[in-house]
Design a protein that fits this description.
- Helix 9 packs parallel to helix 12 (279-291), helix 12 (279-291) runs antiparallel to helix 13 and helix 15 (366-380) packs across helix 17 (400-411).
- This protein is mostly helical.
- The protein has helices spanning 17-21, 35-38, 45-64, 83-93, 107-120, 136-143, 151-162, 202-215, 231-244, 246-249, 269-274, 279-291, 297-321, 349-361, 366-380, 384-394, 400-411, 428-434, 456-466, 468-471, 478-486, 489-505; strands at 3-6, 28-32, 68-72, 98-102, 124-127, 166-167, 170-171.
- The protein has a five-stranded parallel β-sheet with strand order 3-2-1-4-5, sandwiched between helices.
- It has three domains: 3-127, 3-Layer(aba) Sandwich (Rossmann fold); 136-195 and 245-321, Serine Threonine Protein Phosphatase 5, Tetratricopeptide repeat (Alpha Horseshoe), CATH 1.25.40; 339-505, DNA Cyclobutane Dipyrimidine Photolyase, subunit A, domain 3.
- The protein contains 22 helices and seven strands.
- It starts with a strand and ends with a helix.
- The chain binds flavin-adenine dinucleotide, ligand DLZ and iron/sulfur cluster.
- Residues 8-10, 32-34, 37-38, 43, 48, 51, 83, 104-106, 109, 399 line the site of ligand DLZ.
Length: 506
């Protein structure tokens, strides 16, 4: 029987299971720009523009391949502004069609569609998303019966499964992980490549006008807009990364530099997550660079680990933990997210840089997300749900399945240690070591307490002391708590008083 194939904004892949299962001569593809998806959080204008432009280009490509596509633009008359109602409207015009789709990436939308189909009594076939390396069942099998879930062991399974950087059963280079070579601070005299920039065509310009008009008040700058919006452009961006930045990706993966927004990062997550690039093809391209001798093993292994390790691992955790994961709040933190997350107006130089580039580019790299904005929110005791919604809104690569485990789990420790074995809490010293932000900051990173002290310093101790009941038994923090206990009580009070003053000002 004929199908209505719903293709979502992050399912822009020619090898999407629901397209492979369909038949262009018989089935109809539905794609829809809807307010409900565009506003469940106040997405960054660049993120909305990227998705709408990529959706419109993908629809055109499907048409060129012979598919009939029912494409609903945001401002089309009759647009009901929700995906389930758009499905309903399409089925009214196409009686006898059954709904076919690939499982949505987010629990929220999966539930919405399932509940709708149940209520409407519409036959619906939801296929598992084969664009991931581990299926739900594989992850469950791996996780079942383990006391602790650690990415590193899961990653090795994925190496074996994909054969990436493997010699038979042995890892290339004799070790699974070369991270010990990867934690160098950056030097600003190094040559910095930039991600490949693409010029908007007419289709994209029309989307930019729409987004400007409808979402121009959201946090974030729309222009200049240079993201790839087609698979061909994204493949060029991948080649560009593999040739220009990959060789140094490992060495400087954790570094931050004032004025260098991308360093040697790939800026590919938005393309992979929207389906323009497949995770495996990205890894194969990067592995090729290693075999051709143009990139070292520590860079290539580190990069592949992020994709077949972390990316798959967090997705597994997400589906194991939903619903409820985004409500977790291990520390019971209740502070509202400070306003400067939405304005960038703070005299902490590291925070201003991370938030400012987030506003301009809908992008910040991993260490900025984890050790600057994430670390600050956790130390300050911000409600993790508010932190979660901020991250989900402001990054072009953000979908809940990947964002929530990174925010709730990795960065806020709000799941109590499911994803990480200890909180990523750090004082100013870490940021100073990995970046050049402190030199131009209004605060003094070496000053521990009192006026002008780097806020991360007292907040770090205040966080540990405030949450001692929850963290005191963590063996990985034993040394830190011993240091605190050995401190003179006057010194301790200075730390806590300074922290109080900073928190009162937030
Ligand atoms: P690169 O540094 O070039 O890394 C290569 C690729 O590896 C990325 O493109 C991405 O696909 C993958 N990757 C790397 N780290 C992770 C990770 N921890 N989890 C999953 N995939 C990873 N990533 C998202 O894709 N979407 C998010 O919404 C998101 N939110 C995050 C929030 C916080 C608080 C933190 C700490 C991390 C978050 N990450 C998220 C992970 C990571 O920071 C981004 O994937 C990365 O910064 C994207 O930039 P890039 O493409 O230049 O990555
Ligand atoms: C993120 C997003 C946005 C902003 N807009 C749309 C849209 O209008 N139509 C659509 O199909 N998808 C959109 N998306 C992506 C969906 O939110 C995404 O498919 C779900 O969150 C599941 O991951
Ligand atoms: Fe950030 Fe503190 Fe350094 Fe300023 S001194 S840049 S607030 S770490």
């Amino acid at each position: 029987d004929a199908n209505l194939i719903l293709v979502l904004g992050d399912q822009l892949s020619p090898d999407l299971p629901s397209l492979c299962a369909g038949d262009p001569d018989r089935d109809i593809v539905l794609m829809a720009e809807v307010a409900s998806e565009a506003s469940y959080v106040p997405h960054h204008p660049k993120k909305i523009a990227f998705l709408f432009a990529a959706m419109r280009h993908f629809a055109e490509e499907l048409r060129n391949e012979g598919w009939r596509v029912r494409y609903v633009e945001l401002e089309d008359t009759g647009n009901s502004q929700s995906l389930s109602r758009e499905v309903e409207r399409a089925l009214e015009d196409l009686p006898g069609h059954a709904l076919l789709l690939t499982e949505p990436g987010e629990y929220r939308l999966k539930t919405e569609l399932e509940e709708w189909a149940e209520r409407a009594g519409t036959p619906m076939r939801m296929l598992e998303d084969s664009r991931f390396i581990a299926s739900h069942a594989e992850f469950r099998d791996w996780a079942d019966g383990r006391k602790q879930l650690r990415m590193e062991y899961f990653y090795r399974e994925m190496r074996r499964k994909t054969g990436l950087l493997m010699h038979g059963d042995e890892p290339e280079g004799g070790r699974w992980n070369f991270d010990s070579e990867n934690r160098k601070p950056a030097r600003d005299d190094l040559f910095m490549p930039r991600p490949l920039e693409h010029r908007p065509d007419e289709t994209t310009e029309a989307v930019l006008d729409l987004v400007e008009r409808r979402f121009g008040d959201n946090f974030g700058r729309l222009k200049p807009f240079w993201f790839a919006v087609t698979r061909a452009q994204a493949l060029d961006a991948l080649d560009h990364f593999a040739e220009e930045a990959l060789p140094c990706f490992g060495d400087y993966q954790d570094a931050m530099l004032e004025g260098e927004r991308f360093l040697y990062h790939s800026v590919l997550a938005l393309y992979i997550n929207a389906g323009l690039l497949g995770p495996l093809e990205v890894c194969h391209r990067v592995e090729r660079a290693y075999h051709e001798g143009s990139a070292p093993l520590n860079a290539v292994e580190g990069f592949i680990r992020q994709i077949i390790g972390w990316r798959e691992f967090v997705r597994g955790i997400y589906w194991m933990q939903m619903p409820g994961y985004t409500e977790q709040n291990f520390f019971g933190a209740t502070r509202p997210l400070p306003d400067f997350y939405w304005s960038g107006e703070t005299d902490m130089a590291c925070m201003a840089a991370a938030i400012g580039q987030t506003r301009d580019e809908a992008y910040a790299h991993h260490i900025q997300r984890l050790m600057v904005t994430g670390n600050f929110a956790m130390l300050a005791g911000v409600d993790p749900h508010e932190v979660h919604e901020w991250y989900l809104a402001v990054y072009a690569d953000a979908y809940e399945w990947v964002e929530a485990p990174n925010v709730i789990g990795m960065s806020q420790f709000a799941d109590g240690g499911l994803l990480g074995s200890k909180p990523y809490a750090a004082s100013g010293n870490y940021i100073n070591k990995m970046s050049d932000h402190c030199a131009g900051c209004a605060y003094d990173v070496k000053k521990k307490t009192g006026d002008g002290a780097c806020p991360f310093n007292p907040l770090y101790w205040d966080f540990l002391v405030r949450n001692r009941k929850k963290l005191g038994n963590n063996p990985r923090l034993a040394q830190v708590y011993r240091t605190w206990d050995r401190m003179e009580s006057d010194r301790q009070s200075e730390y806590l008083d300074s922290a109080r003053a900073i928190l009162d000002r937030l």
